[in-house]
Amino acid sequence: MRRTTFLLTAIAAATPFVFSLAPSYAQSDSQALKAAYRRPAEIPFPSENPYTPEKAALGKALYFDPRLSGAQNMNCATCHNPSFGWEVPVKTAVGAQNKPLGRQAPAVLNLAWGSHAYFWDGRAKSLEEQAKGPIEAPVEMNLPLSEAVVRLKAVPDYKTWFEKVFPGGGVTPDTIVKAIATYERTIVSSYAPFDAWIDGNENAISESAKRGFALFNGAAKCAGCHTGWNFTDNKFHDIGTTTKDIGRGKLEPNNIKAQFAFKTPTLRDVAQRAPYMFDGSLATLEEVMYHYVGGGIERPSRSDKMQPLDLTPEQIADIIEFMKSLTGSKQVVTLPVLPN
Question: What's this model's pTM, rounded to 2 decimal places?
Answer without folding.
Answer: 0.89
